[in-house]
Amino acid sequence: MNPTDNRRKRGRDFWPKRILLMAFVLVGVLGYFSDKINPYYADVLTTMGINIIMAVSLNLVNGYTGQFSLGHAGFMGAGAYASAAVTLFIGPKILPPDTAAHYAWATNALFAGALLVGGFVAALAGLLVGAPSLRLKGDYLAIVTLGFGEIIRVIFQNIPALGGGLGLNGIPPYTSLAWVYGTAVVCIYIVLTMVHSTYGRGFLAVHDDEVAAEAMGLNTTRYKIVAFVVGAFFAGIAGGLYGHDTLSIDPKGFGFMHSIDFVVIVILGGMGNTPGVIAAAIVLTLLPEFLRKWLSNAEEYRMVVYSFLLIVLMLTRPQGLFAWRRKIKSV
To answer: Per-residue b/e over 154-186, b at no fewer than 16 CB within 10 Å?
Structure first.
C-alpha cells in the first residue's frame, strides 16, 4: 500500500477520537462554569442538550434506518420513571443523605447507575415493542409505535407506587450541564460510529431498499430492532436527565405530542443527517424562548407553527432545512 494511503487511513481512523476528546474538554469547561451561568440560561441549555440526545437517538431509527416511530417519548418516560425510582427509593438506602453531602463521587456514581437503569429499562421496552412491530412497514409501523408509546404512558399512570396520575415529586437535582452534554457527546459519537462502521452499513441498506437488502442476505428485522433498542436506550437516559432536572415527572409529559416534537426536529434537520438534526434541536429549543418575549400565549400556537413548518418543508425542501451535507451512501 502507498505510504500516502496509509497516512490517509490513519487520519480517517483518528479523527473521531480527536473530535471526541475535544468535545469532552468542552464539556469539562462547561461543567466548571455551570454554577456561574444564569439559572434561566442554564435551564435552556439543559433542555437543549436533552433535545439533542432525543433527536439524535430518534434519527438512528427514523433517519438512518428509514423507519417511522411515533412513540419515542414513551421510552423517554420509561427511563425517567426508572431512574427516578432508583434515586428516590433505593438511593437513600445505599447512600444516606449525610454521606452524599460529603462525597460528591458517591452521588455521581448513584446518578450514573440510575441513568443506566433508566436506559436499560427503556431499551427493554424498545425490544418488547420492536420485536413484534418492526416486521411492519410505513404507516402501519407508525401507528403501532404510537400505540405502544401510549401504552407505556398509561401503564405508569396506573401504578400507585410511582405516583399514578400525579407522577413523582421530590426527585433529587442531580442533572448538570456536564452530565447532559457529556451524554450528548457519547450519544452522537456512538450513533455516528455505528452508522459509519461496516456493520452499520446495514442500517443504510435497510433505509435505501429493504427488499434488495433482504435479497443480499441481510436480516433486516434484526437491524431495525438494533436501531430501535439503541435509540430507546439513549431516550431512556435522556428521560433520566430530564426527571432529575425538572424534579417532578408525570405521565402527561411523555405523551404523543412530545413524540411529535422530536419527529419535527428530525424532519427539520434532515433525515439521516446528524449535524442537521443537532442544529434543528438547537433552533427549536431557542425558538419558543424568543417567541415568549413577543407573544404571551406562544405555547398555544406552537403546534400550529410546527404543523405549518412541516407542510412548507415537505413542499419546498423535503430533504430537511439543515441538510447541507449529502447523506452517506450504503455500500
So the answer is: ebbbeeeebbeeebbeebbebbbbbbbbbbbbb
